[in-house]
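Task 17 of the worksheet. Students: predict the tertiary structure of the chain below and write it out as structure tokens. Keep your answer in the requested format; marks are given for formatting as well as content.
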Amino acid sequence: MAELASEAAPDAVRAALDAHLMPADLLVADHPPRVPQLFVSDMDSTMIGQECIDELADFAGLKAEIAAITERAMQGELDFEAALRERVALLAGLPEAAIQQCLAERITAMPGARVLVQTLKAHGCRAVLVTGGFHQFADPVAAMLGFDAVVANRLEIAGGKLTGGLVGPVCHAGTKLAALQEGARALGAGAVTLAAGDGANDVPMLQGATYGVAYHAKPRARAAANGAIDAGDLTSLLRLLGVPAGDWRG
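Model answer:
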């Protein structure tokens, strides 16, 4: 694990570290890291160990087909909104009850997720879960981990079944960045922010945060971030921020 504050250009430092230490848990900054006032995080494959839409698709017998689209979207090979709408459309007719069954049987917190969120909150940080996934999953996940707010998409349901559509505008990369920026503005000038994510859809918020940390991420997200967790669990973020293990919560 490497925590490095340097007066050299962060990109140059990061390139040197990657050349010699990758994979590694690291954070590159031009100042000693501080506990953030705002934490904005992706959900799927970051705060939880699954991609919700892929697991839900399994209940429709379409996991392989939908997971292949998900992977390409997360790599940045497909337009996110178009890929999302395509996958959701394939779920038309799936009983609403499959969502609760999926939550109960498939969705698990990423190791260290609750400790990370609870510890940051104990230090006065506001935590926001921002996801291109769905409120039907994100709301219970946020409650389980302790997030203060959720920004997500919503699956449309009628007559007890998924319609294959979404309610309202799509939550995408720009939405995630806006959530970060709006939260930072509310805190005032000089607010310290932290963002975590793993895919191409997270790149703008990773770049926009004081500390953007790519968690076991796709190459595009990792390259955009000034921090990375390649080896450890989410408590590695607390170590990188200098929070002693004795102060951890959750």
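Marker's comment: The domain at 52-105 is CATH 1.10.150.210 (DNA polymerase; domain 1). The two ends are 22 Å apart (CA to CA).
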